[in-house]
Amino acid sequence: MAELIVSRRTVLLTGLAGVGAMALSACGSDPDESSDDAPADVAVDGTVSIAPDGTQEVTVLVRDDYDFYPAAFTVTTGRVRLSLISEAKELTHNFRFTPGVGPAEIAEEIPILAPGESDTMEFPVDQLGDYQFECSFHVALGQIGTMTVTSA
């Protein structure tokens, strides 16, 4: 009867090949799942709506990249209610207006959102101009946007 001899090297290489195959298969994506598609009920084109109380409302999405959706929107002077929705599966994000950039300081911010969470903040704007906003964790990677305030 022939004796099967397996070296440690063979066992190790076989194990590494299996782990590598599993890692590569995890990188695949489901063709039915598109990260570019927002939920049908969320406008990500910068549309600002007016709530019954007269407050301007805008929704901003974040995902597992370093972008805001939309990256720019325009409001008029008055009150703004901004909702941040995380569609991320892995990354955490926050939202704040970049300190020292813009016509006036906006102190309100949304703290860290875990994947799948959302939060809302409300603030007044009375100075016209461009206000830069950012995810303070990913600003170095370009996760910034602009809110433009025009006259009512």
UniProtKB/TrEMBL annotation:
Q: InterPro entries per the record?
A: Cupredoxin (IPR008972), EfeO_Cupredoxin (IPR028096), TAT_signal (IPR006311)
Origin species, per record, is Blastococcus aggregatus
- Which residues belong to any copy of the EfeO-type cupredoxin-like domain? 53-148
What high-level taxonomic lineage is stated for the organism?
A: Bacteria, Bacillati, Actinomycetota, Actinomycetes, Geodermatophilales
PROSITE patterns per UniProt: TAT
Name of the molecule in the record:
Cupredoxin-like domain-containing protein
Highest taxon of source: Bacteria
